[in-house]
C-alpha cells in the first residue's frame, strides 16, 4: 500500500518464517501512522520505523531491500534513485532486491476513450469535443485502462532496469527506434506503455515459479493501469502495415524524478526492421520465410528434432523497399 | 453529459419527433464548444446556444425545461435555484419540467471501505489507519459505492422536491426524525443517502411507463454513486434493533449552493416510531399484529376480498417502552 512506508530493509535468516529485524524508512508524517500500525500488530520488537530520508540514515548492512518505488509507466515520479542509494549503501554483497528488475513495454494501440467513443453518444456526434479533450492530453501521458483488443501490434521491451546493478546515471535516458507490423486493421491513435517487475525467489525455495507484478493490458487491472502517449492525429492502418516510431524518455533537468517523453513518428523505410519482422514489406516477408526454412533445415541436418533452434543474426537487414 | 450545456428550453409540437426550437443556456466557456457540437450535428437551425447565466437572459416562454442540475446526494452544489428561476420566468403554465420531481432516500448502512476492509489486509491489521482515514471524512459526506448487502434497514423518503411548484425558499432546510429496525445483525457505521428523479411521460404517450433516474444501491451504479454520512464510532446492531436518528440539511448561509448536514443519533425511546414499525419494541410488534388483524377483519366484514385495504391512523403511538 502506498500509504505505508516506502522502503523496508530487513535482516533475516528465513524471510518466509519472518524477518529478525526490519528498518522501515519513511520521511513524511505517514511514518507516525506506520509506527501505530506496527504497535497494533505487535511487531515493534522487529520493525523499527525511521522517520527520515534514506539518504540521511545510518543503519547496519541488510540482507534485503523491499520497496514499492514504481510510478506510472514505471519511471514517473518514482523513488528509484533513493532505492539505488539504499542499495549502494546498505545492502550486503549477496543481498536481495525486491523487485530485482523491471521492464517497460510499448505497443501501438487505439484509444477509444479519446477517439471513437465520442463519434456517436446516444445519437450525437461529439468529434469536436473529443478533439478538445485530446488537446488537453498533449502535455502529459494519459493514465487509462487499455483493453487487450485495443492493442494494434506486438509489444517490444523498451528498456530493462536491473535493480541489482544499475546506477542512477544508467536511468538518465532511454531511447528506441522500432517498427512493428499492425496486427489487424484499425485506428492507430497512440502508444501504450506498461511495465512488469520481477521479484527474487524466496530463499527457502518456496513459491511456485516466477513472482511477477505485471501491468500489461492482458493482465488484471492494477493501480498503475496503462499509460498512453496520444497521437495528435489518428492514422488508419491495415493488418501487416509497418508502424515505425522513435520513443525517447529522459530525465527533466529541473526535476530528476520526472521524465520528458518524446514520441516521433518515423517513415518505415528509414528504420532497421527487427528480425523477424511482422510487417508486410517484401523484404520482411521473404526474410521471415528464409529464417523459417533455415530453422527447419537446421533441425533436420542436426537431428535435433526434440529441441527448439533459435536463429541469431548479428546485422539487421537494410530494408529500404516499401511495397505497402 | 455534464460537459454539455446545463439547461435547455424547448418549444415543441412533438418532442418525440424533435423540438422546433431549443435555447441552450450555459454561462461558462463550455458554451463555445457546445456551439461547435451543434454545428457538427447540423442542428444550428434549431438549437441556439446562449452563453449567459439564465438569470440574465430574455427568451420567449417555452413548453419544456430540461436540466441536469443534480449534485451528489441531489442537493450538493446543485443548480436547482437557477432551474427554479427559469421555471418561474420562462415556462408556459402547462409546460413540463424534466425531471419533474426528485426524492432523497436515507437508510442505515455498513461502510466496509472505511471500517471492516482494514481489519485484515493480507494479514496486517490496519484499524488505526482506518480510524485516521475516517477522521478525514468527518467534515464532508463521502461519495462511495454502497453494495445492497451493506444496507442495514429499509430506506425512508427523506424529502421530496416538486420541480413544478417548489420555490427556492422551500429548499432552505429539510429535517427528519426517524426510527428503523435493523434488517439483520451487522455493524451500523453510517447513513446511506441517495436520490431518484422522475420524468414526465412524453406528450404523445410513447415510452413504457415511468421514466426514472434511480441512484439507489440496488440499481446500476451511476456517476453519483451513493453518499454516506460516516459515524465517528460504529455500533453493533441485532436484527430488529431500533436505529433512531435525526438528519438535518440546511443551506450554508455563506454559499446557497452548499448544504450543511447534521446527523444526530437519538435514543429510540425519544422518537415516535412509524406505523407499522420494523423494530422489535414490544409496542411495535403488538401494533403491527393489531394492524394486521384489523386489516384482515375489515376485509372479511366489508367483503372486499379482491381489494387491498390500507389502515391510516392519525396519531403516532407514544412508544416509551424499550424491551430490547
Automatic annotation (TrEMBL), chains A, B:
Record has Transferase as a keyword: yes
Matching InterPro entries: Arg_MeTrfase (IPR025799), PRMT_dom (IPR055135), SAM-dependent_MTases_sf (IPR029063)
Coiled-coil residues: none
Annotated ranges, domain Protein arginine N-methyltransferase: 101-264
SUPFAM superfamilies: S-adenosyl-L-methionine-dependent methyltransferases
GO CC terms, sorted: nucleus
One Gene Ontology term from the biological process aspect of the record: methylation
Keywords: Methyltransferase, S-adenosyl-L-methionine, Transferase
Pfam families according to UniProt: PRMT_C
GO MF assignments: histone methyltransferase activity; protein-arginine omega-N asymmetric methyltransferase activity; protein-arginine omega-N monomethyltransferase activity
Superkingdom of origin organism: Eukaryota
PANTHER family: ARGININE METHYLTRANSFERASE 8, PROTEIN ARGININE N-METHYLTRANSFERASE
Protein name as it appears in the record: Protein arginine N-methyltransferase domain-containing protein
Annotated organism of origin: Chrysodeixis includens (Soybean looper)
